[in-house]
Amino acid sequence: MFEPLLFLIAASFLFAGFIKGALGLGLPTVSMGLLAVAMPPAQALAIVIVPAIVTNIWQTFGGPYLRDIMRRLWPLLIGTTAGIRLNAGSLTGPYTHYTTIALGLLLALNALIGLSQLSFTVARRNEKWIGGIVGLVTGVISAATGVQVVPSVPFLQAIGMEKEELIQALGVFFTVATVALGFNLTSAGLLTGATALPGAIAMGCSFIGMLTGQAVRTRLRPELFRRWFHVAMILLGLYLVVSTILKIHT
User: Fold this and answer.
1) Please, are residues 110 and 55 in contact by the beta-carbon 8 Å criterion?
2) Cβ contact 136:87 at 8 Å
3) Domains in the chain: how many in total?
4) What are 197-239's pLDDT values in tens digits?
5) Cβ distance 171 to 26 under 8 Å?
6) Is residue 107 within a helix (H) or strand (E), and if so which, with residue range?
7) 226 vs 7: which has the higher pLDDT
């Protein structure tokens, strides 16, 4: 692992941790997108997975709503786990170039959803069966790209949680999803000693970024910050798509 790549890992996780601390989500999404510029998504996910699990566990137990969250979200969590297991192997199959394209499209789509500010609600009586379907779709997509935000995050935003409860619910959901992804990576032999140093750097930088993001959360203009963050993710997603297509055809 040469030094410029370690620098990219450190910078990616500082930024991704800051976004997670400020907004409550984004560490796997942002870090996967940035690392995919320089490596295949499977290799990037092997570096992302441990910091993502640890920071999500921290977020999971950072509030008083855990029991209510589990009562409401268990179909989403089970569906996501099932989808990830059903699509295991897609990151390491013969079409890895296309997983990078899918990752870029997913980053751009998620950002467009965020910018559109679409507002819809899911009635309490329907959230369990809808949550199971949303979880299954999210799991299949996540197993192929390493990203768990679509369609799960719009669903979580639609079921009427308060801000701090939503942040804790995101932590619970992402913890379950990243642990399931970790089992996929272990089965594929991608979590090895070679990922120890990059993983340690990623872990340290994630916590520094996350603590910084949490410290400035109340001082940010959240809508402006969120808007520019989504614009950056659209540009990054399009770059991944275009650059990968050019590599395939050269």
Assistant:
1) no
2) no
3) 1
4) 898 999 999 999 989 988 887 777 777 778 888 888 899 999 9
5) no
6) helix 96-116
7) 7
This prediction has a pTM of: 0.85
pLDDT digits (tens, 9 = 90+) for 177-192: 999 999 988 888 888 8
Distance of CA 250 to CAs 79, 98, 133, Å? 39, 15, 39
Write out the two tokens for 242: 């275009």
Could you identify the residue written with the tokens 């998504």?
A: 41
Return the residue matching tokens 């192929």: 144
Residue 164 belongs to some domain of the structure: yes
pLDDT at 1: 46
What pLDDT, in 10s, does the model give residues 143-155? 988 888 889 989 9
190 domain-assigned: yes
Nearest to 21 by CA among 207, 157, 203, 204: 207
pLDDT at 93 over 80: no
Residue 78 lies in a domain: no
For residue 129, is it within any domain?
Answer: no
Measured over the CA atoms of residue 50, residue 55, residue 58 and residue 63, the dihedral's sign is negative
Q: Domain residues for 224?
A: 3-66+88-123+143-248
Gap between the Cα atoms of 80 and 148, Å rounded: 9
Using the structure block, give the residue that is written with the tokens 């910091």: 51
pLDDT for residue 94: 65
Amino acid in the structure at residue 140: V
Say if CB 136 and CB 83 are below 8 A apart: yes
User: 43-59 burial, b if ≥16 CB within 10 A, otherwise e?
Assistant: bbbbbbbbbbbebbbeb
Residue 208, classified by CB atoms within 10 Å of its CB into exposed (0-12), middle (13-18) or buried (19+), is: middle
